[in-house]
Amino acid sequence: MPSPPADAPSTPSERPRLSRRKMLQWGVATIVVVAGLIAGIFYWHHSRLYLSTDNAYVNANTVDMAAQVSGVVTALHVRNNQLVKSGDPLFEIDPRPFQAALDKAQAQLELARQGNVGQGAAVAQAEAQLAQRQAEWRIAQSNNRRNADLVARGFLSQQGGEQARTQEQTAQAAVRAAEAAVQQAKSALGTTGPDNAAVRAAQAAVDQAKLDLEHTHVVAPITGTIANLTLRPGDTVTPGVPLFVLIGTDEYWVDANFKETELKRVRQGQDVSVKVDMYPDHPFHGVVESVSGGAGTAFSLLPPQNATGNWVKVTQRVPVRIRVTDPDPAHPLRIGTTATVEVRAPE
């Protein structure tokens, strides 16, 4: 039986089949276009309500722990990555040299107090000497007046009168010397009691020795986690040299670096959604605390010099500090880890 020619028209049964196929294709295309349109509208609306960036890093307060006195570490009470509370002991420095310094300072204080008492007695002695010399001067004055009257009446020789005048002058000079001795003794004494300069200096030395002795027992200034600990018993520590880091756990924040073109929509107090990459299924909440006064590059060690010739304009990023309002001990945050933040911003 001969086959129909290739250009023969389709049979009636094939036309509905092709029509249904085209309708299905057009339906799928329509759904894709509508879905894309809806997604575009949603993205446009979301971008008007929220600002987001994944250029964000978790941060917290850190304390560089260092000794305040020099000495040999005799005991270490913590280990690396350990959680400690404020006031917990961290390590000990050999206290024996500082106890000896305290004993010496206390002895010097006692000597200063005794010296102050002795100088007070010297003042009293000098004042007694002055009173004696003043009495002798008054006697010499009386004798001189009486002898002068006798010389005038001829009952005493001129030589006797001159001798009486000489004795008065000698007694007067002795009074002046005694007055100078009193002033010298008072000057050496200074203020009496605990207000005396020597006593106060000795007391300050005792206080410093006590403080140095207290510094041999090092405690945690804040609640936090020990990090980067390499200290061991037997190490010699020097004042001011960092030994390890204490990361505070009472406050966390995220430094989010937004583009400079987005800052006009960032305000202090705005609510923020924080998604830490370490816990993708546990969102955190935060609030905008502050916006930096300059771009991150402005505070770098070698800031860019845009006036050198081959300059390319690059959108800068400005750090925004976002305080985490609901830190969760079950999901501890780690400084330096990355996060994604989303700020509810006004349109």
Protein architecture, described:
By secondary structure, this protein is an alpha+beta fold. It has a domain at 110-191: Helix Hairpins. The protein is 41% helix and 25% strand. The chain is built from 4 helices and 12 strands, in the order H-E-E-E-E-H-H-H-E-E-E-E-E-E-E-E. The protein has helices spanning 14-49, 96-153, 158-189, 197-214, and strands at 50-66, 71-76, 83-84, 89-93, 217-219, 224-227, 236-237, 242-259, 271-276, 284-291, 317-324, 338-344. The strands form 2 sheets. A 6-stranded antiparallel barrel has the order 1-8-11-10-9-12. A hairpin with a 7-residue loop joins strand 9 and strand 10 (284-291). Helix 2 runs antiparallel to helix 3 and helix 2 packs antiparallel against helix 4 (197-214). The longest helix is centred in the middle third of the chain and has 58 residues, at 96-153. It starts with 13 loop residues before the first helix and ends with a strand. The mean pLDDT is 82.
- Average per-residue pLDDT, rounded, comes to 82
Spatial gap, N to C terminus: 76 Å
> Helices and strands, in N-to-C order?
HEEEEHHHEEEEEEEE
CATH class of the domain at 110-191: Mainly Alpha
Question: Shape from CA axes?
Answer: elongated
The whole-angstrom Rg is 47 Å
